[in-house]
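Exercise (ungraded).
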Amino acid sequence: MSEAARKIDYDAIWGEEEDLSVLTFNLNGETFAIEATVVQEILDLLPETHVPGSKPFVSSVINFRGKVIPLADIRLAFGMDATETTIDSRIVVIELDLDDEATLIGIRTDKVNEVTTLPRLASEPPPSVGMRWRADYISCLVKRGGEFIIVPNLHAIFSSQRDRTGTATAPN
Amino acid sequence: MNNPDPISVFRTEAAELLEQIESGLLDLTRSLEDRDQIDAVFRGLHTLKGSGAMFGFEALAAFTHHCETAFDRVRKGDVPATHELVSAVLSAQDHMRALLETPNGDHDAMSAALLDNLHRAVNGAGSPTPITTVIATNPVVEKAGGLREWRIRFSLPANAMANGTNPLGLLDEMRDLGDCRIIADTTKVPELATLDPRGIHLAWDVTLKTEKPRSDIEDVFIFVMDDMALEIMEVAVDPPATALVDMPVAKAVVVTEREAPAVQAANDSKQAKSAENVRVPAERLDEMMDRVGELVIAQSRLTQLAGTAADLGLRSVSEEIERLSGELRDTMMVLRMMPVASLFSRFRRLVHDLSRETGKEIELITEGESTEVDKTVIDRLADPLVHLVRNSIDHGLEQPEERLAAGKEAKGKVILSAHQTGGEVIITIKDDGRGINRERVRAKAEASGIIQPGATLTDQDLLQLIFQPGFSTAQTVTNLSGRGVGMDVVKKTVEALRGTIDITSKPGEGSTVALRIPLTLAIIEGLLVRVGQGCYVIPLSAVEECLELSLEDDLRSRGRSFISLRDSLVPFLRLRELFRTGTQPDPHQKVVVISTGSERVGLVVDQIIGDHQTVIKSMSKLHHDVVTFSGATILGDGSVALILDVTHLVAAGQQQEAQLRAAG
């Protein structure tokens, strides 16, 4: 993704607003935040059904109120290892527009923290170099306390994972 | 939704009226003398004008008024119905749609042009043979010289006044027609204690002497006809003022008159029937379907609990609920089914227009219109079918002279048919045109780089090339097709419905495109099996038989996976291996033999649990790359089971068979 395009993504998530209301959660020790408006529900772990032949990123489906929705592990998009589930593990159900179609997706998390607001002033676009992760998977980083909160670009993650060709060529 | 926006209600109704008008007009093009259709079109236009004005669509009302006037003249026999007139009104009717969509747009120039056209059609053709036409089409009017006595009985629905109908106005209008004696029938008036003062409980019996024809009496009731009970009878025909010579004619007329009330009654009941329909947004149906699905799941849990409990009362309640929820589910399924007639009807207009545009003579034949398909299928198939029909007409059918030279009828045929086999509906579009030119398809595919020059392809593969993106063989781009988009979209849409497309084509004899679409997208009857830890559903329509995998077969087939089934070899797939469950096989594995048509394949599973009927849930887009499964379903315990895609598995089995054969 080009620098300009990334800038657009960055603007898209903040828009005119100075504050962003988000839900924060932990994955492998990192704090992530997703916009509160896309979050539908936070669930305790449910029985999962493994889908043979699917990509590890979305390896199973769950029954969410009578709907069958995919359960995604965005750790894999960031090259992290899958962790054991604990009593804190939760599934965050989000609704995302994929090809103009509202799609419900469950996301595995290690722990859900809180709903909070992130100020625009403390945020910055992802650096194009020097990161372990694909920069186009990140909308922005927000500094809070001594740590960075990662706001992932869910559209980029799920769109590229959905491609039949699978992995788009990674930048850098 | 409790207070629906009246404007949007009107729009929906108007759209329906326009459809009725259009279908009436198209019927008229076949038999110009059809009085019923002329009346139907007139009534439609009249209602459209009236309610259009009522809801503030002034431009629409004013424009429709002219068309109505023209048709009124046809109806009265002043002007014969001609093809020119019908065409003029057809295009005027398109304009009405535009006026309906954008009432504030700038339509004046268009309106004027169309009205001009209409007047030419009416006046140009009207004068030369008025008298003969009148006699031929409307003997009733001709005869209506004398005073006739009519007996009219009518009653209005109880809520008519709430809807703005004033019965006094109707009575006054009848008085205007002639000498009138009105008796109110009070037998239906309830006791005072139970009387609803806002309702109408009276019926009226009117004896009317008038010179006006029957249609004028009907016009009085034109706005309320749909809901009311109306009976119009001619009481006694005055002694004919005409000479005796005319007697036979008069007799014939009397016969038709006597039949008329019966026809009228039939029409009334038909109208009453259509008034009973309820319009429901599709998403509510979907929601309800989901609820019913959840209910079925909850019910099966209840059955399980009741089965283990000793309480007899609980068991009987549970059985009762099982029966009820089963019935509810069946009813729900039927609710979503619609006849394909609603899909096919729109093609009459398309073909009519295309015929004019291309100068080809085309006859559209539709078959199997009562075949019922899930509503979603109908909605999504509309565009692909339009494209296929256009292709047939544009590319397939030849010009009349070319057809004659080839020894065919000048009129080309397009046959649109639907029929149901098993769990599928097959919709075919067949033409008797020139067929698909293989050479050109190949040349084109090579030129656009879809295939390598000189590549060997089977005939079916070659024909399937036309579904490749960016493929178009039309030498000239026409308005209709040949823009190089479309056929690939058609294929995608059909595949999204879990359907397939077959093409057959004979040079010089025509082409057939067959779409095979699953009957319903919502419900499946399946066989529940266990493989490793997971449960899977195999569509029951594809299951041929189940048998045990004998130890010898199991061992012997390590090298070649075949079982012999009544003297024929059937390849089989071990689902445990296919799904990489990593579990040990059960000691008594089962083979489920599935088939699609002539091809069979066995699936080795660990356990057969039983049959299972449930709501299909589609897999999300994130799983579109997984071809082994066509969907998922929710089991009694709330867990998810995946539904196997039979076509894909059979193909995989056949492929394996081919490989094994090749190997030795």
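Further reading is listed at the end of the chapter. For now, observe: Residues 33 and 88 of chain A are 17 Å apart (CA to CA). The first strand of chain A starts at residue 19 and ends at 27.
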